[in-house]
Design goal:
97 residues; mainly alpha; two-stranded parallel sheet; 5 helices; globular
Length: 97
């Protein structure tokens, strides 16, 4: 999301996104996370459901692996790929109430 906001020159939206850093919890990407991501990547291809070009770093499987580690729901616009691995919801449709 951030890179698209930057590309579009939406500085106010970037600032709002930066404000989230004060309330969000960040998890480091660990070796275990990357090992699981590699397994997800391979398994998706074996099932005929790749989520990225074979030569690309697949951010979806890395994010899914992080979510598995945290037992978290992923809020995204890309529920098609991510829901292959974890629970994923469209962030703008999600309500905390």
């Amino acid at each position: 999301m951030r890179r698209n906001l930057l590309l579009s020159g939406l500085t106010k939206s970037v600032s709002r996104l930066d404000q989230l850093r004060q309330v969000l919890i960040y998890q480091p990407i660990t070796t275990e996370t990357m090992l699981r991501a590699a397994e997800l990547w391979a398994n998706a291809r074996k099932r005929g459901k790749p989520t990225a070009d074979p030569k690309e770093l697949d951010g979806d499987v890395i994010l899914a692996s992080q979510a598995m580690e945290a037992d978290a729901v992923v809020m995204t616009e890309n529920i098609g790929h991510l829901s292959l691995f974890v629970e994923a919801v469209r962030w703008h449709e999600y309500s905390l109430a």
